[in-house]
User: What shape does this take?
Amino acid sequence: METEKGSTRSSNPSFCRRYSVSDFDLAVTLRSGQVFRWREEAPDGFSGWVGRDAVRVHQRNSTLAFEGATPHAIRHFFCLDLSLPSIARSIDVDPIIHQALQTHWGLRLIRQDSWECLASFILSSFNNIPRITGMIERLCIHFGEPAFPKPEVLAKVPERVLRNLGLGFRAPYLKAAAQAVASGKADLEGWNALEDEALRQSLLSIPGVGEKVVECVMLFAYGRTAAFPVDVWIGRAMRRRYFRSRKVSDRKIREFARKHFGPHCGWAQQYLYCYARGAPARISLERTEPSGAIS
Assistant: This one.
């Protein structure tokens, strides 16, 4: 029944659709800290959400088998419409990022719903992935449908209820953001038409939203690949590997990254993040000439 190029009917009754992919690693992508509502299912599968649709996805070699979404939605969500080799060539400018690309090849950015992305990264402040996942799961259980709670719903929830769900000091910030979006003051959909700097300033106008959250939302929800989020892992890795362990500000790191990696520096950020969290420090800090495309 599928008519989109690259997709066929699946012989596996538990997954109604299949899609042929290249340069894509589902597990690496979903474990990369971009999204927090996906669970692993053995073997080689995940269940989660694409927007408000519950989805199951399984990868074996170059084939994605999935249910709950259209091939177009899957392709859009996982940025499968973009050429990863072309992006890699543009950011592969030193041995450090080259090694990160080789180690985590197939990692792609995920295009997320703007409200869910904003709320999720508000909850990420001074937090780790398991705790963020737990917070979001509790929110969805109590206020979702069971998809991620709409801003109109959370705008009306008493702050004490959010605190009782374990959100702590993040509760008033999440509620304020929900109120701004629900009222139309924060027009997340309309802001998609703004240029990068105007979008950045608009997001910063939301109560409780700082620069790190803004960079995450710009990259993961709006696809602004010149965004470069700096969290603890990226800050530590960048200072060590590119600044000789000097104390430099997050803003300085972002400015350097945009000049060094170019307009797709957000992709470099995600590869470096995964490399910093999971790979040993095998690369010399010495600079060399750009190493070319990944092999």
